[in-house]
Amino acid sequence: MRFKLFVVCALACGFMAYVLANENISTEVEDQIINAVPANKANKIAQAAEFVEIVDQPKKATPSTPSPPAAAAPDKKVQKAPAVTPNPTPTPTPSAGKLVPVVHVAPLAASSRGTDDILTVAGLKPQPKSGALVMPFDYLGELYDLDSSGYNWDPNNNVAPPDTPSTAAGGYTITSARLAELRSNFMYWFFDKDNYGGRGDYQFDIHASMTQLHKNLNFQMPFYGFRFNYTRLSLNGYLEFSDPPEYLTYPLVFPIKDWPNKRDPSFMGIFFSKCRVGRIYPSDLDQRTPGVYFRVVRDLMGRTDRFGVEVRERTMWDIRTGVVGADTFVPKHVVIATWKNVSFAGGIDNSLFTTNTFQMVLATDEVYTYAIFNYAVLNWLSHTEAGGDTTKGEGGVPAFVGFNAGNGTQAYEYTPYSQNMVIRDLANRGWGNGFPGRHIFRIDEQILIGSCNKDIDAALLPLTFAPESGNMLGGQVVNITGPCFDPSIRVTCHFDTESVLGTYVDRNRVICVQPFLKAEGYIRFQISVGTQRFKWRGKYFVETPAAATEKIFFATDDVHKRNPSEIRITWNAFNLTSNLNANVMISLWGYRETKIEPQLEYIDVIEASYTNTGSYVITPSNYLTRHNINNDMQFGFLQINLTQPEQYSNLALSPILWSRPIPLAWYMAPQWEQKHGKRWPRALCDNWIRADRFLRNFAADLPLCPCTLEQAVLDLGRFRPDRECDKDSNPSCLRHRGAIHCVVSGTPVAQGAEQQCCYDRYGFLMLTYDQMWGSRPRRIHNLGKMPWNEASKVPSLSMWFHDMRPFYSCCYWQEEQAVGCETYRFERRPSQDCVAYQAPGIAGVFGDPHLITFDGSAYTFNGLGEFVLARSTDQSERFEVQGRFEQLPPNYYGQVMATQLTSVAMRGNTTTTIEVRLRPLHARWRYRLDVLADGRKVYFDRESLKFQHFDGVTVYTPTYLLNQSQVVVQFDAGIGVEVVENEGFMTGRVFLPWKFINKTAGLFGNWSFNPLDDFTLPNGQVASINLNDMRSLYNNFGLKWMLTDRDVPNVGAALFTREFGRMASYYSNATFQPNFVMDPADFLPSNRSYDLERAEELCGECSQCQYDYAMTLNRDLAHFTKNYYDSLVNMQAENAKRVVSCGVLQTPRFGRKLSFDFMPGAKVAFECNEGFILVGDQRRECLSSGLWNLPEYGYTECLREVYYTRRVAFIAIGIIVLVIVPLMLCIVCGVYRYRQKQLKEDPHWQMTLPRSRAGSTRNLRTLNYDPEDDSDTDASTLKKTKKWDLDMQDEDVTSSEGEKPKQTGRRSLRSASGTELDQHDGTPIDGNHRHDAEDEDDDFDEADVHTGQLHPAGYHQPLSPEEADQLHQQQYSPTFSGVDSRTSGASSINYTPQSANQNRFGGVPVLPNNTQYYNRPSSGVPAATATPLRVAPTGPLTQDSGLPSPPPLATSPTPSVQKSTEV
Question: Does the pLDDT value for residue 719 go beyond 60?
């Protein structure tokens, strides 16, 4: 028994020894094999390579380290390769030492791009490799370089360099010659020895019984959307990051469809096939140990040691020159995995000598990752389990080549090589860096091939090109990789409708220069090789000039001014060439639309030749004498390009840098002044106004602006941020000073116009009626309108021509109150107010999941599958929004019977289908959401790609986000969909305009402002649902809106992108039974009271939040559920408020408003500019009814002072005319009526009036009364005397001594008894005398004027000067009414109509008769000696004397109703 056990053990040991002998070769044998040179190969080797003799030294700790042929300088850290004669042929000495191959690199000047230089490297590979290296200097040296430590820096040395990473300053600096030497080698470094007696990079732990080994990377390596800090090195030709399936079926298909039931590994497969370590022949030139090698070189960006610098520089330039779009890549970490001489599993006999050698190099900066596949030798294709034979490894299913992201997400198979018989071509194709057998990929986010691929006939193959976008104006150099190119075969590039010829660079790359494209967004990009059709295709994004990546920067805003002194510009010099001594040309271009075709024309050269320093100062005064034919161009662009590009890149092509659109006043102003005069801005503006008035009116098609900034931010269906004034990315607002944020319509309206709404710091809408910086609608949208190749439809250019250009000529270069500016603001581009603005309806879904309908009904639906969220029932305005719900991951207690939103798909009437998808958990390190447009992923990680327009739909992400965690989709019908991600949980919101009221259906219900019809079924019936009955809601309503891949009437078909055969049935499960109990206290067991308390603590009264936490125990989910619920409810409440606005209150010309608010309660005050006067109301108020209060003093105006004075004068004259003229007419009419009445009563009646008041006064003063007898006047008589005709020199009318007599009227000289007295002696006057005096002189002639005679009518004629002086001293009262007679002592008035001395009103005549005048001596002459002036009247002087006689009347009014009359 013991003997049998001994035999078994011996056999087992022998078998193990046999296996180890076949798979691992000892160090001594390896040394012998490396040092040995077969005799029969000596002549052949001598012909293929030169040798240097190395004398053997005694073995030390590093037995294989050769000694240098000469002592190296110990103080030099940089070792230069010694010069070697081009054709030395030393004779080998077999016994003296060993031979080291020397490689000569032919001078680059002697090589051409049409042929490949053959590098013969002994011991590397049996077939030659091509190395068409592009380096700036020639190099002739040998692969033999010894440093001060004695280490041989031969790239093919099998001994690892000293492992001493260093970051000290002043370290190793690689030369161009050394870099060219390193890059001339096909394989990267791999070592089977080190300086410490170890095995170097060789992984001796990997063998047939243990095929993989775990490796920690200690850095984050992005791969296919995920990031990993570890890997597993497998003998089977791949690096994996998760467990593979237990068994494999051939051909391999990835991703695994049955995941997660079956493991789906994440791996990079360079040659995924079951392998085993092979053997090598003693005659092989490369005698390094067969097996798997692995090396990680970290932190290269700061390394200064030689090996770190050489690894970094070699890898960097191999990737930069080998992969398009990697021009700025700098590797931070490098992983080198090599499979040397591995054979296939299951082979017999000498199959171990049938081996493959390949190498994988991974380089990453922890954002981008590149993979280099080097296939040195491929002698077998498949292993026996895959159907290959047991001797040669032929037949069956060949190895898999490609990448798998894992977790059932996505995979990339490298066609046509993978699992195909042409896989052997991998060693002869690819041509990465000019090497056949080198294939390069970019693998961080998605797999992009960086080397030429085998052409497959009748196939549409993906095209790799970079950059993937460019300015619409052209000049972008596009590097293209796809088919393997030939310099003798023409390559044509097709950009949408424009075709250009490509320029051959090498077999792996062709360059095409993008032409001027009149298009925007994604266009078709195709190439054809020779006479073949365009079968290599891709999508190229065209950036509009106003939104393109800015490459020429203006230091200040001087370029926008009317007459700047200088303009400073800068640019990145490396965007043109890495040679900073190159010369560039700066030119000026302009744009106009005078024909149907757009005209982008060259204007002038700003600088013909200037060193590429990256900055330049433009002096406008240098162009004063220019006379351009196209001087009518008012805006244009600066262009910078290389003058002689072939000197720097060996290509007659130059990149072109364009500026953003700029006005051209700084250049054209002198020419415009010669043409239009000093007021050329007004002339340009007038010309534009005349032209614009002939165009159609576009304002009626535009959506109305929201009243406030808060409303504008919430209206995600119609408005998006304006690039020119964005509070998050561009707060400068150059053309909207005072604004903090502007929004524009997301998509062009039917006629191609664009709305703009700007808001000030208070959040109110800015109007052009208030200021020139207000919101301005645009005739042309920045995106243009199809077809883009016609005038007024070109993206950006037409918008600048019609809308931006006039702003400068009418307002920016003139005063704000200029006529042209006000015409531009008030007539041609007026702001639209928000009086009729209607906020959109909002519905949303969040959590696990909870839904809120458009009408505000909140419910929970845990369906599993794809469902209709909202769709239109109107066939003329169709839209669909669909959601996918997947089961939540298990929690601590097991499976969670609830779902969450993971994807939203949407489509308009005839628009592009957009899908927004939640990325897997470990793939969210860079992007949180995936956006697919018609099944193709699009990204928003660059400024020029933040806003992307597709057919009928615009998709954008906020400018401040780089991780795509928020995506907004806007359709041309005004529909908006917002998708937000936080910590792996999505919410979706839908925004609808009012035209969809009563036209919606789905889980979001019918929007009718009536919650009772929210649960409308696809057949149109309304389900009777109790919101608290989740089971009934789930079965009777929710499942009715489940989608399938076929079109269901009134439900539709699923819009989601199908990948890897996963149809709707993969996600749907109608038998899934979620938890139908809403209250956590009802479904949590009693032993989980802590979870219940925690839910109440986190969520408060929010039932949705409590439900989510109790189901998942996820605090993040509970938190965001509460957040999404509150935000959605607040949005609905805000939009439900009635929008009340008073609208536009125009600013008076030459004035300003102190505030621009137009909401209810706003009080707006006005002010005028200096030199102007405000007329009208100084303040207006916005009433709650939405109307401005009516002005009390007229509408507000600001008038110049001279105009104000004129207006006041005209108003006064007008008032006078309007008041006096009607009054005069009334008086005339009254007199006329009175006269007609009197004439009717008495045909002989005549109206007699005094000529003037002054004449009456003089007549009264001629009466020669004695002042002493005039002392009986009363107070009223004195007052009237002062008012009428008393002079300052007149004496007092009252007596100054004695007792004050009783006042009597001046004209009533009666005694106390009523008897009339004489004025001189007080004697009574006889009535007969009075009648005689009246008859004495009744006629009036001219002589009475000079003699003082009075007309019988009582009109006094002028006196002589002497008489006037004499009479001036006399005092008389002007009162003559009947009241005076009553107050003067007259007891009664006896009015007799027949009396000639009494008028009809009881008063006295106004003027005295001729008999009143009598002789009176002068005041200084005694009465006895006085000379009488005239004969005294014969009759008594009474109060009625001297007044006109009244007409004879039959009756008269009674004295009791008579009133005094003053004349």
Answer: yes
